[in-house]
Specification:
Mean pLDDT: 92
Radius of gyration: 23 Å
Low-confidence stretches: 1-11, 22-30, 474-478
Distance between the termini: 69 Å
Strand order of the largest sheet: 2-1-3-10-4
Strand content: 15-25%
Largest sheet: 5 strands, mixed
Structural class: alpha+beta
Helix content: 25-40%
Length: 478
């Protein structure tokens, strides 16, 4: 029975194990050059472990098989970078690519496009995501008076159409009780076009996927007013493969996934180092890369197919049909295939089932840069990335981090980035774009001004912007 005829992961895994065993004892059946053509999205930085890092660190070569039918095989590894999923899908369907990395929305379109062409693709792994939807977001021009989505009724909002951010925006508009065709003017814009439009105030707001809702504010011309987690719409980026290719070369698919697992291990151990590498390749600042890939980051690099991610793909398919972007009925249970990933986990010595149950963020294992004591409670952590330092400094409290930042700048040091955790939801924030409340005991950070105002009212605290918060002389940081 073939792999594509099995829907349940354990049965898929068993079938795959038998297939692998047969392949390895069958002898050198293929001494030709085997193409491995991989489509990446380098600037979509949460695809890094499935593309950029594998390529730059030559990790795939480390795991490619050289036994059995691969004894005399030569490999031709081809890499091609894209800025979005749609053109990547076109080349996969045309047979020019074997693997691709993209978000749930374009991945659903990928599966539908393959099916329409009489072919099949498989969604084989999550690379990075958020079960609550963080990563997608909405920004407004820096000088805009708008502080929340509720203030955008009747306004023009741009978004890359058929992207995961588009799905988030439609969900968020619906949650406001608005008609997306009447109450807002939604237009399509790629991120690079939207950046210029925000700077020239040609649009009222822009919705986008990783990393642009954080990158544009970091570059100083936008403010983030909405995080995808507010719409509670799970989002992910992951890897796909042509099903015929996977059937012919299952060991290569597993090798690719083992390379991705290795990339994930490396960036987990040294997020600053590899955030700098991503910056070198893409131009996206390391500070923003660290916001996602560092400890307590906006998204988790979780490869397992959690129920929320499976539902996200199903929702994407349903939304694409509602948008009339496809008429194809795509069976999620056949489209998502975790058998290759389970095999890669087993060969790497990892427990798939244990990770499937783990919803924790990338952990922060650090000592307070002032006291030297281990940081146990991470709910109020503040972090500083100081120019010229290879590691981010961590502090047990936000007030200590802000006070230390003030001291460092007074002494002439440059701060690359200050990070804070949102008091309400734990989201990692770029501190310059946050709102703050000072009460009698502490300082708390918030993404939204409305959240900060509510906290100030509750605690009889004082609402502050970033500059005011940093100037406060907090005893614990002196």
């Amino acid at each position: 029975m073939s792999l594509r005829q099995k829907n349940l992961p354990p049965l898929r895994f068993a079938a795959l194990s038998l297939l692998l065993g047969a392949a390895l004892i069958s002898g050198s059946a293929n001494a030709d050059t085997i193409r491995i053509a991989i489509g990446t999205q380098d600037t979509t930085i949460n695809c890094a472990t499935g593309g950029l890092l594998i390529r730059e660190l030559h990790l795939l070569e480390k795991y490619l098989p050289h036994e059995g039918k691969y004894k005399d095989a030569q490999y031709d590894i081809e890499w091609k970078n894209f800025t979005s999923g749609a053109p990547l899908t076109n080349e996969m369907v045309a047979g020019k690519l074997d693997f691709g990395a993209m978000a749930d929305f374009p991945a659903a379109f990928n599966g539908a496009a393959f099916q329409k062409a009489g072919k099949r693709s498989l969604f084989i792994s999550v690379l990075s995501g958020s079960t609550t939807g963080s990563g997608n977001g909405i920004v407004v021009p820096k000088a805009s008076p708008v502080q929340s989505l509720a203030e955008l009724k009747g306004k023009t909002i741009s978004v890359p159409f058929a992207s995961t951010a588009h799905g988030m925006l439609l969900r968020a508009v619906k949650d406001q009780g608005w008609d997306p065709d009447k109450d807002v003017n939604i237009i399509t814009q790629a991120p690079e076009v939207a950046g210029s439009a925000l700077q020239s105030n040609k649009i009222d707001a822009h919705a986008d996927f990783v990393p642009f809702a954080e990158l544009f504010p970091h570059r100083g011309f936008a403010r983030k007013i909405f995080d995808g987690s507010q719409a509670n719409t799970p989002t992910l980026h992951g890897s796909l493969v042509d099903a015929d290719y996977a059937k012919k070369y299952p060991e290569i698919v597993i090798a690719y996934l083992r390379a991705a697992i290795e990339a994930n291990r490396l960036i987990s151990a040294e997020p600053e180092k590899y955030s700098l590498l991503i910056e070198k390749v893409t131009g996206i600042e390391a500070e923003v890369n660290y916001l996602f890939h560092g400890p307590l980051g906006l998204q988790t690099r979780d490869f397992t197919w959690k129920p929320e991610y499976r539902q996200a793909v199903k929702t994407s398919i349903d939304t694409l049909k509602a948008m009339k972007r496809t008429e194809t009925d795509l069976d999620v249970n056949n489209f998502i295939d975790d058998s290759y990933l389970r095999a890669a986990f087993k060969l790497t010595g990892l427990d798939y089932e244990a990770q499937l149950k783990n919803y924790a963020k990338s952990p922060l294992i650090a000592k307070d840069a002032v006291t030297g004591k281990a940081i146990i409670d991470t709910t109020r952590v503040g972090q500083l990335w100081v120019q010229g330092e290879s590691q981010v400094r961590s502090y047990a409290t936000l007030e200590t981090a802000l006070a230390q930042a003030h001291k460092l700048e007074q002494s002439g040091r440059k701060i690359r980035a200050i990070y804070a955790q949102d008091r309400d939801n734990g989201l990692k924030l770029l501190a310059e774009d946050a709102w703050y409340v000072q009460d009698k005991r502490e300082i708390s950070a918030f993404l939204l001004k409305s959240s900060a105002q509510a906290w100030a009212s509750k605690t009889h605290g004082k609402l502050l912007d970033f500059n005011a918060a940093k100037e406060i002389n907090v005893a614990s940081g002196t």
